[in-house]
Amino acid sequence: MNAHRAIVKPIGRTISLELPEEFTLGDQVEVIILPLNEPPVKKQKNDLRRFRGALAHLPEKEKKEMDDFFKNIRNEWERDI
User: Fold this and answer.
1) Helices (DSSP H) in 1-81: which residue ranges?
2) Centroid of chain to Cα 22
3) What is the 8-class DSSP label of residue 73?
4) Which top-level group of life is the source organism from (predicted)?
5) Residue 11: DSSP 8-state
6) pLDDT of residue 36
7) Domain extent listing, the chain
8) Sign of torsion, CA 42 46 49 55?
């Protein structure tokens, strides 16, 4: 794939581009126009606090069973293999 990137300033609403010599005359090209001054998109942090209290509606017995289950799984990680 042959790619060419150019940063140009439009005159009015017109942009003029000159193709590099490596491009074959008559072939189609793809043009993508992106504003340079667009603020970068911030990646959303993985905030696990949104799960806090998600299981509050469960009965105490089920909470205890889940707690024991997860403790057993964690204990399996600690054993020698």
Assistant:
1) 60-78
2) 34
3) H
4) Bacteria
5) B
6) 84
7) 53-78
8) positive
Task: Return the residue matching tokens 């060419």.
Answer: 4
Structure tokens at 65: 């069973």
Gap between the Cα atoms of 72 and 54, Å rounded? 22
pLDDT digits (tens, 9 = 90+) for 21-68: 888 888 888 989 888 887 777 777 788 888 888 888 889 999 899 999
Task: Locate 76 and state its tokens.
Answer: 């399996």
Of 24, 40, 32, the closest CA to residue 8 belongs to 32
The closest of 39, 6, 45 to 23, measured between CA atoms, is 6
Residues whose CB is less than 8 angstroms from the CB of residue 35 and which lie 6 or more positions away in sequence, other chains included:
none
Name 28's Cβ contacts closer than 8 Å, sequence gap at least 6. Answer: none
pLDDT score of 61: 93
By the 8 A CB rule, do 14 and 33 touch? no
Angle at 25 between CA 20 and CA 26, to 5 degrees: 135
